[in-house]
From TrEMBL:
Source organism of this protein record: Vulpes vulpes
The protein's name: Arylacetamide deacetylase-like 2 isoform X4
Gene Ontology terms, MF aspect: carboxylic ester hydrolase activity
Gene3D superfamilies cross-referenced by the UniProt entry: alpha/beta hydrolase
Family under the similarity heading: Belongs to the 'GDXG' lipolytic enzyme family.
Source lineage: Eukaryota, Metazoa, Chordata, Craniata, Vertebrata
Active site: S189, D341, H371
């Protein structure tokens, strides 16, 4: 009892001390976001304390929270929902109940969560995918993949690719009544990074008979080789995803080596032989003037550590590293970026790279948007900006798929 009271007291004190959080003035629903940011910050602080005490790892604690938020496959009056497996990979399929004479459109959705957390079962993703199926009268497939730190690159990518490959077979498309010429791959955050990599693969691999018609990337994370972009500097103390935390989680995708985390925080994690790759993420040429002004381009320090684990220089981790001849094969693309987001510049640079090679890109930038807004669409963490992003995404899909 005494211990519980002490913990509660400590939590309240921490919460209060974090209340003095400074948010940009233009943030919509200011007090809701303050509450959200304060809770996230307090939780992260406590999680780190508990990790230092050796009780449980921070990422295990967060995983437990994500699992509390999982939903069952519940059908409703419009959509039949079921969990199954595609090539051994868990998926949730949403099938509209309305009668249809023609084959339907399909959306494959890959969820975010920094490669460590989350599932299509989480309430936010389930509600988004159900909404998509209902609004577009389309088949939707939510894809799960094995997570870090138990599994490292390329497991996450391979799981997503295997599920997509399975779905794109003639007999499977026919079974679900899908039009092979009208398929989209979508995702958010790290899931959008995976969606980007999978789309690059499907469009260029002659083993795929059916290609993707369009891709939709919602605040995508698209590279790890430069960790000091203007958006990293501006969002060092970001609302949902501060820089230190983002780097800690993203590094778990590749390795458990703690020295890598420290090196990445100092932007000196890449080997000498990666020099030629920096042209693909050179923000001094790829970011629009508006986002780079006030910042001075400095090249990362190379060769200080010589880390060599798989994935470090791989386009399946950093799809921004794909060369122009590969990018030319990509389908019409929707990219949504948020101003208050550490990965903002990844998305902005991909817009430039794709436009430079003539790929048709629709870009929406949310001036007062925050990272992971789509995960806050269900009570009690309901943010209006999440609904706005959802509606922009659905409206683009409806016109283009
Ligand atoms: C089913 O679709 C109708 C018409 O679009 C809508 O009004 C209703 O809310 C939907 N039901 C659910 C459970 O989403
Ligand atoms: C990045 O672009 C700047 C010009 O804006 C150039 O001076 C620099 O050498 C480039 N660096 C790389 C690694 O491409
Ligand atoms: C890393 O490799 C480069 C050459 O590839 C070498 O010059 C440098 O000394 C190495 N650094 C370390 C820390 O081993
Ligand atoms: C572009 O990248 C692809 C795949 O990574 C590679 O096969 C191809 O040779 C590269 N093309 C050029 C011109 O470098």
């Amino acid at each position: 009892m005494g211990f519980k009271a002490l913990c509660l007291g400590l939590f309240c004190a921490l919460f209060a001390s974090h209340l003095y959080i400074s948010l940009p003035d233009d943030i919509e629903e200011y007090w809701k976001v303050v509450a959200l940011a304060t809770t996230a910050k307090t939780f992260t602080f406590m999680g780190m304390c508990i990790e230092h005490m050796g009780i449980i790892k921070y990422e295990e604690l967060v995983s437990m929270l994500f699992r509390l938020d999982e939903t069952q496959p519940v059908s409703d009056e419009n959509v039949t929902v079921m969990d199954t497996e595609f090539a051994g990979v868990p998926v949730r399929v949403y099938l509209p109940k309305r009668k249809s004479d023609a084959p339907r459109r399909a959306v494959i959705y890959i969820h975010g969560g920094a490669f460590c957390f989350g599932s299509f079962k989480n309430a936010g993703f389930d509600s988004l995918n159900r909404w998509t199926a209902n609004k577009l009268d389309s088949i939707v497939v939510g894809v799960d993949y094995r997570l870090a730190p138990q599994h490292h690159f390329p497991v996450q990518f391979e799981d997503c690719l295997a599920a997509v490959k399975f779905f794109l077979q003639d007999e499977i498309l026919e079974k679900y009544g899908v039009d092979p010429a009208r398929i989209c791959i979508s995702g958010d955050s790290s899931g959008a990074g995976l969606a980007t990599g999978v789309t690059q693969q499907v469009q260029t691999d002659t083993g795929f008979k059916h290609k993707i018609k369009i891709q939709a990337l919602l605040y995508p994370a698209l590279q790890i080789i430069d960790s000091y972009l203007p958006s990293h500097q501006e969002n060092e103390h970001g609302i949902i995803l501060p820089r230190d935390l983002a780097i800690k989680l993203v590094s778990l995708h590749l390795t458990k080596d703690e020295t890598f985390v420290e090196a990445m925080r100092r932007n000196e994690h890449m080997p000498q032989e990666s020099r030629h790759l920096f042209q693909f993420v050179n923000w001094s040429t790829l970011l629009p003037e508006k986002y780079r002004k006030g910042y001075v381009y400095t090249e990362p320090i190379l060769g200080k550590h010589n880390f060599s684990f798989p994935g470090l220089m791989d386009i399946r981790v950093s799809p921004l590293l794909a060369n122009d001849s590969l990018l030319q094969n990509l389908p019409p693309t929707y990219i949504l970026t948020c101003q208050y987001d550490i990965v903002r510049d990844d998305g902005l640079m991909y817009v430039s790279r794709l436009q430079n090679v003539g790929v048709q890109v629709t870009h929406d930038h949310i001036e007062n948007g925050i990272h992971a807004a789509l995960s806050f669409m269900t009570p009690p963490l309901y943010l209006h900006v999440g609904l706005r992003i959802r509606d922009m995404y659905i409206s683009w899909l409806d016109k283009n798929l």
